[in-house]
Amino acid sequence: MPYTSDYLVKSVYDYGYFPDAQNNFPPKTILDIAQRELYDKMIPLLMGADNGYFIEHEDFSFVAGQQEYVFPEYSMWNKIRRIDRVIDGRVRPMTRIEYDQLYLYSGSSQNTPTCFYLTHDRIGFVPVPQTGTVDKYRVYYYRRPGELVNDKNSWIVTNINYATGAVTYTPNSYVYDIGTTFLGVTDFYSSKSPNNYKVRNKTPVTSVMPTFAYAASDVALISIGDIAVNKDTTVFPPIPNELHQFVSELVILAMNKITMDIGAYQLRLSNVTNSIKEILRVSPGQRSVGQNSKLTLQGNGLVPNRLIAGRGFWY
User: Helices 244-256 and 5-15: crossing angle, nearest 10°?
Assistant: First the structure.
């Protein structure tokens, strides 16, 4: 059974001991607290592991004479991992320069961009793209997860006509009877772990429950049993399954903070975050730095210096 928003709320109610005021918090408030705890504590730890969590990339076209471009819409914390140039399907690295080095390129003529710089919310290129540039630039960034909504705001795909694009839904089962039953522009997620998204931002041509019609190409990757939600929302906390228990613990701590001694709160919070770090650091598998790879370990806050061998990997 997948771990969804409703089960997160239920685990908070089951394991938390709250004053009457917090016991009356509705599920939507608990999900809002969970969303903040994910951004404040869990997601930074996953990103700090530097093992690819939340990283995605998109290709964008250069515009002749335009030097700066707005960050991708879902770029979390306005952080950019890297930028490459894509030429006829081939990827070529670009060099990052600092903003205060732009004077070195002043007066240069338009040409094929080879360097980039970052401002608060824009990516700039030098030289400025010239007329006739057909290359694209590829942005690797940390994608902002969808907003947590309760299970009632999701639907199960029960049938797909791949020729016409017709998708038939049935309401998802839910624990808490809250939220709306409206489905518009759609994101699709797999119902199987790791509950990855299939396709995003698909607009139905017709939308009369239980069957919506999309462009046939929009549903080519969807399968029966997948979960449909409104654009930019999700019922799946965006973390590995084994970390779900810690989200409910963080929520319970946040709700209890006002009644706890500050020292006790900080100690408990430290215990939870250290447990998360330990899981991320020592769990075996593809993400283990025990596999010889070009991962940079020096300065990684999750890896004690004493564990960094001279060859750059554990053994």
Answer: 50
